[in-house]
Amino acid sequence: MSQPIHEQTVLITGAGRGLGAAIAAAFAREGARVAINYRRSQAAAEALAARLGPRAVAVAADVTDPAAAEALVQEVTRRLGPPTTLVHNAIADYSFNGDARARIETLRWSEILAQMQVALGGALHLLQAMRPHLAAARFGRVITIGSNLVQNPVVPYHDYTAAKAALQAFTRTASRELGPLGVTVNMVAGGLLRVTDASAATPDAVFEMIAGLTPLGHVTTPEELADAVLFFASPWARAVTGQTLVVDGGLVCD
């Protein structure tokens, strides 16, 4: 079973700004009902919802809290209908600055755990909250947002990359368990994006280096990655699950 995007109710975590906002705009453009989840970016999320129109709402929740994730799904259901589609984009606060990153000799387990709680914990809590709705509909689309640093850790951001690798593994295992319900679970793994809040601290020289190494000759934009997310939600991907699609202009080949 599949649904066209305009019939879907899409919950996007971390959607108040940056990549999440671009994903929300892409789904709204295709006619979906869009729930913009945010933790602290209230003004940005509400402004985005207003811009996207009456089929978009902004809903606050800290998805690392199981009760908050459950309440989020209930609120989306009340305002837009049961969510059919989850895009788990939220990350813990992070800055991609290679000079300021934590090295192994100074890295604390708590830093890794902070990334895991959002990337992996958030995915788990939301799937648990959404599962009854997905089972009832016998349909669902789950798209997690990963990183090409798992395939090619050109800069060893240990904590962030470890969390994304764990999320990639969970994407594969969740696809096996949820498949019988008609739910596909896939990952879109991006590279460095130009520009989001997380990449704002990245020096221009790094962007120029990556553009020079990339077959398409430019650094991927949030809008380009958002369109790849739409593919996994669309009927064209109805037979694809458990997969990771790297969207970085051809920089990494996996």
* H/I helix tally: 7
Number of domains: 1
Q: Helicity level, as a percent range?
A: 40-55%
The largest sheet is: 7 strands, parallel
Whole-angstrom Rg: 17 Å
Mean pLDDT: 93
Approximate shape: globular
- Tell me the CATH architecture: 3-Layer(aba) Sandwich
Estimate the strand proportion. Answer: 15-25%
Low-confidence stretches: none
Q: Which class do the helix and strand fractions yield?
A: alpha/beta
Arrangement of strands in the largest sheet = 3-2-1-4-5-6-7
CATH topology: Rossmann fold
Distance between the termini: 29 Å
Number of strands: 7
Name given to the CATH homologous superfamily: NAD(P)-binding Rossmann-like Domain
Query: What is the class in the CATH system?
Result: Alpha Beta
Describe the structure.
It is a single chain. The protein is of the alpha/beta class and 254 residues long. The protein is built from 7 helices and 7 strands, in the order βαβαβαβαβαβααβ. The protein has one domain (5-247): NAD(P)-binding Rossmann-like Domain (Rossmann fold, 3-Layer(aba) Sandwich), CATH 3.40.50.720. 43% of the residues lie in helices and 15% in strands. The model has no long low-confidence stretch (mean pLDDT 93).
Concise synopsis of the structure shown:
With 254 residues, the chain is an alpha/beta fold. The protein is built from seven helices and seven strands.
